[in-house]
């Protein structure tokens, strides 16, 4: 493969780091006080899930999220932070890529009718797949430094 400026593995690492920065921005701009103290994030998602045309989404939200809204708020917010840090540093990269892909697919399914969000989630999921199948942890990563996942 011919590339300009960097080699193919380095460009994939740039893609991985960019995805990590995207997750960190998602974490940074969240109103954590609103999510944790007032439950705004879960309330917003509950409103969307309650009107969702797919019964499985309504039922799943009712059974999984509604019983533990505060816990799920912490899981969502800190999952985004952990994904961002893992991808930027290249630590446990395959785990972060799979977890991020699953989270993006969950967001994509929940917000299937919100096209503004869909572009972001679709692109993040695509980047996760590319980074996963090109083994983006081989360059500029703690995984490579520690000899993990080689």
Secondary structure blueprint with pairings:
Elements: H1 8-28, H2 32-38, H3 40-50, H4 55-65, H5 69-89, H6 93-110, H7 115-133, H8 142-146
Walkthrough of the structure:
This protein is mostly helical and 150 residues long. It has helices at residues 8-28, 32-38, 40-50, 55-65, 69-89, 93-110, 115-133, 142-146. It contains eight helices and no strands. It is elongated and about 50 Å long. The model has no long low-confidence stretch (mean pLDDT 94).
- Shape field: elongated
Helix-strand string: HHHHHHHH
Q: Summarize the biggest pleated sheet.
A: none
State the helical fraction.
over 70%
Provide the gyration radius in Å.
Answer: 17 Å
Number of strands: 0
- For the termini, the CA-CA separation is 21 Å
Low-confidence stretches: none
Q: What percent of residues are in strands? A: under 5%
Task: Provide a brief overview of the structure.
The protein is mainly α and 150 residues long. It has helices spanning 8-28, 32-38, 40-50, 55-65, 69-89, 93-110, 115-133, 142-146.
Question: What keyword list fits this structure?
Answer:
single chain; about 150 residues; mainly alpha; 8 helices
């Amino acid at each position: 493969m011919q590339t300009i400026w960097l080699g193919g593995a380095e460009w994939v690492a740039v893609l991985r780091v960019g995805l990590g920065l995207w997750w960190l921005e998602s974490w940074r701009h969240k109103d954590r006080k609103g999510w944790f103290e007032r439950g705004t994030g879960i309330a917003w998602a509950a409103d969307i899930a309650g009107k969702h045309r797919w019964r499985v989404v309504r039922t799943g939200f009712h059974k999984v999220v509604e019983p533990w809204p505060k816990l799920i708020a912490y899981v969502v917010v800190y999952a985004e932070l952990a994904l961002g840090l893992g991808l930027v540093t290249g630590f446990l990269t395959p785990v972060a890529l799979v977890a991020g892909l699953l989270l993006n697919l969950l967001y994509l399914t929940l917000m299937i009718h919100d096209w503004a969000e869909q572009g972001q989630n679709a692109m993040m999921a695509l980047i996760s797949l590319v980074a996963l199948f090109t083994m983006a942890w081989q360059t500029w990563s703690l995984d490579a430094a520690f000899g993990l996942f080689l």
